[in-house]
Amino acid sequence: MPGTPPARRTVLRAAALVPAAGLGLAACSTGGDGNRSAPREPVDLGAADEVPVGSSKLYTAENVVVSRIADDEYKAFSTICTHARCPIRKLRGAKLTCQCHGSEFDARSGEVLREPAVSPLKELPVKVEGGKIVAGPGA
Q: On the CB side of 62, how many CA atoms lie within 13 Å of its CA?
């Protein structure tokens, strides 16, 4: 019947769904500081000896993780999650965990350890120059 006001039950059901929809959106929000990009130019990450052989270090301000594979071999990756572009802020051992949806990556290879991400982290050029780690395009 056109022009008939909606039933009270219909109005109450709709009102109950609005907060639930908001929770769904919050669960998929990125959180964090909003910086969703890897370095676009070389960045100085500090002393090379701050990353011991066999370990990894997370540089949250630059969205980079560096792993020291051997005495003179380093690997660097962007820490922007390949699932929803959230900046990754958690490193435990060699495992990076994205706080947005739980994707996990190997800090030494960039490979996905746990979905929902399916693509590896982007590898970045890295070198040691004057005793300092420099990573990013042009490094």
A: 22
